[in-house]
Sec-independent protein translocase protein TatA (Roseimaritima multifibrata), 71 residues
Amino acid sequence: MSTQLLAFAMPGLPEMMIVLFVALLLFGGARLPSLMRNMGRSINEFKSGMSDQGDSDDVPQDSDSKSKPVV
């Protein structure tokens, strides 16, 4: 049973270096920083969207603001 748990452990330094090397080969050194920056922005937007969605469910809607005409 302990060998099954070890199969799903976090990747170590050698595995991470292999992944970074393959990413460098695929995308090149010039595009890799911008790719990581865009990925970070996407993750931040996703997290803020998820927190906004959770907050909007708890806030009751004001029915008076919908019925008043905007001048």
Q: What stands out?
A: The first helix runs from residue 2 to 7. The helical segments are 2-7, 13-58, 63-67. The chain has three helices and no strands.
